[in-house]
Amino acid sequence: MCGIVGIVDLRGRRPIDRATLHRMNESQHHRGPDESGMHVAPGVGLGHRRLSIIDLATGQQPLFNEDGSVVVVYNGEIYNYQELIPELTRLGHRFRTLSDTEVIVHAWEAWGEECVTRFRGMFAFALWDRNRSSLFLARDRLGVKPMHYALLPDGRLLFGSELKSLLAHGGLARDVDPCAVEEYFALGYVAEPRTIFRGARKLPPASTLLVRRGAPLPEPREYWNVQFTCDNPLGIEDACAELETRLRESVRLRMISEVPLGAFLSGGVDSSAVVATMAGLSADPVNTCSIAFADPAFDESAHALTVAQRYGTRHHVDRVESDDFDLIDTLAATYDEPYADSSAIPTYRVCQLARKHVTVALSGDGGDESFGGYRRYRMHLMEERMRSAFPQTFRRPVFGLLGRAYPKLDWAPRAVRAKTTFESLARDSVEAYFHSVSILRGPMRARLYSNAFKAQLQGYSALDVFRRHAARAQTDDALAQIQYLDLQTYLIGDINTKVDRASMAHSLEVREPLMDHPLVEWLATLPSNLKIRGQEGKFLLKKAMEPKLPQEILYRPKMGFAVPLARWFRGPLKERVRDAVLGASLADTGWFDPIYLRHLVQAHQSGTSDYSAPLWSLLMFEAFLRHSVGEAGRGSPLGIGDAGTGALRTVA
Length: 652
Prior knowledge:
Elements: E1 2-9, H1 18-26, E2 35-41, E3 44-50, E4 63-64, E5 70-78, H2 81-90, H3 100-111, E6 121-129, E7 134-139, E8 148-151, E9 156-160, H4 163-167, H5 178-187, E10 200-202, E11 207-212, E12 221-222, H6 236-253, E13 261-264, H7 269-281, E14 287-293, H8 301-311, E15 314-320, H9 328-335, H10 344-355, E16 360-362, H11 367-371, H12 375-389, H13 392-405, H14 419-425, H15 429-437, H16 442-448, H17 451-457, H18 463-470, H19 478-488, H20 490-504, E17 509-511, H21 517-523, H22 539-545, H23 551-554, H24 565-570, H25 574-581, H26 584-589, H27 594-606, H28 612-629
Parallel strand pairs: 13-14, 13-16, 14-15, 16-17
Antiparallel strand pairs: 1-3, 1-9, 2-3, 4-5, 5-6, 6-7, 7-11, 8-9, 8-10, 11-12
Helix pairs in contact: 2-3, 6-7, 6-22, 7-8, 9-28, 10-20, 12-15, 12-19, 13-14, 14-15, 15-18, 19-20, 25-27
């Protein structure tokens, strides 16, 4: 795993300042502490920080083809590279290394832009072809590895694994995009392709960008999209057998390493399934890492220990105290843009623990999305049945009125908290699902924003993100549609972002066998009743794992990877929340309604409402402003750029 950066002059061959390129490269030292490399030519500068995993002796980057006309910097792993080497050799290409990096160079020469369709793995790479005067950027299908880019007004294109590398250049304006702010407070992250800054973009997953010197900057090109057909006729026994075969292959490919390897083990179904599969493929005990929480309401360590003992793993556990909240500013620096998933705290800690023992760790991420594991999926299906019973002309006015009139009873038993359900029933399927996953729902965001900020938004809503993806889902299956939405949004913007930054902060490579794209494609062909049956989520995965995992692991209630925010904000973080949410950093922006900010703090700290998620979002946003914006991003009265599409300028 590595970090990559670059500067390419799209207007000519102006010299690249080596000191600037070096500064950009070193801003990502944590992503690759083992080695550093740079390539500078007229109008082109590429940088690489290496975390050595495969071909330790000869896998240095930047890496060139035989005549030096093609050069690549690359972050990730291509798991099928050993299969591609003989094929490329037969086409006349000569290999000087044993690394997967060199496969990219020769695959580009052999297949051009289509080379990415031949790769199986997680990757983000940048390739400069001198003969074609072109830069080729690419990102893996499920967005496991990141890629940011920005076109500066002077015609120089910057790119890098993390946003901080672009900021290190010094030429990127820190003007905050108001549409990105809206996405953040709705979703807890800034959705692809936006970044928090108006002038920078994320390359979307499953996309490439071919940039030619002297030509306008094109839009990214998509090369893959999962299709939920739900028409596979397999019965449950055959599906279990095929799932086991596919999971073994995916895990086996991800166990290729020349450095110590292990796995995260939370005690949940996904990570336990990965560990059980690893144990069946390894002659040596598997290294497993878990986090124990001092608060028993959040602690799954006993379940992790059960799995570890069953498979005789070398099990490592670190205890996280209930008040482990000293990472707020560290997380702001780690994520570069506002990021509101509080499970980033235990994720950061488990990566910190794992790196003491291994350099590569397998995780169970991606299982909930593909197997149907989230509780919200079952709630959505129930609501869909109710929506289908009433026409939209009835639902919107009647349930909309009930939703507005019914009080928000956070303190009450779940059975009588009907406000959210009424609000969802008034909406169509996509809007209802967006509503259910929003950190601050539409009415709350309307109260949060100042009138001046709303004017800057020009009517933009983060719901547009879901509408855009839903239009491409190509399925009318209720579960498949929201699985598709999560694969395009939450998995990429939240889960993969969280794990990439937290792991790379500790120079740890994390591999996700449940995101193997052939496995994801196959699961998308299965009918939804193999994923959710009755009130049981992950039905197929649990049935397939019954011979390998105890019933109390497979069928216990899902806990998640959470921290006690509500208690923190009424106790040890009480003053910090008040200072951050009601302090100068947020007030000086002019973006928020101070009366509503005060309401959020007072209502939560008095115990009348649970506003822990909105308050955490505001806390992390305030930390982002202090760390990444400061005075540099306050060029306009609101400190933000213009709303709208935020498209990058083209080059004349």
